[in-house]
Amino acid sequence: MPELPEVETTVRGLARFLDGARIERVALNRPDMRFPFPEGLVQALVGASVTGMGRRAKYGLIHTDRGTTLVFHLGMSGRWRIDPEEPGKHDHLVLETIGHRFALNDARRFGFVDLVETTGLYQWPAFAAMGPEPLGPGLTVEHLREALRDRKQAVKLLLLDQRIVAGLGNIYVCEALFRAGIDPRKAGGKVSRAALERLVPAIRAVLEQSIEDGGSSLRDYARPDGELGYFASRFAVYGREGEPCHHSDGGTIQRIAQGGRSTWFCPTCQK
After folding, report:
1. Which SS3 state, helix, strand or coil, does residue 19 take?
2. pLDDT tens string 82-93
3. Which of 55, 58, 179, 223 does the annotation list as catalytic?
């Protein structure tokens, strides 16, 4: 599933061509993806100008001069194609500006779009209860101390809770916990302040590195220009069960199940 860095990479790729442009044509090639397309979507977008783009957690945002924002989620396999040479079988939503075409392609159709009033964007149901952005000023040691206080659940699972930190997914939580030297099985309330002081910059660093690398190309994900991200080549623990830790004094990477998800970690380095 495309995670935060993949969505950020997508938004930046689209913004190069779409930000400031006028939408001349909109095509819906089917009535729905995971959910039906919003009623009146074509009429709302045709003739509108894009006034800015952004991201909230794993959602992309396309703001227009009509006071509305197109929110998109890439689901399991979704991606935007810019100026595709040929129409794609799974191009479900197509936006055209003068000189460019943007196709939302999603073979599995787990992605979706919605049209939201911009002034009420952060009260939209999916956003209303979200925690701070991991790359924003709201993610602090004090925030995590308060959010994890007295919690008995494993810190790995708590970091995946979007109410605590918005947008963190399995790959980047595994990698950040490794960088911070924290055992993913440890109860959230038992994580020390010193460990949290390592964790906050570790979260930022792993996300920023992945964005710089264009994301992690797993299964179907590719950037809007069709290129593959290469952060996967930097994984320290994710997907490396049975392989040696990159640290010279480390152990062997292990995989366990937590909350129905796989967790990879080094039992020697992460205490």
Report:
1. coil
2. 999 999 999 999
3. 58
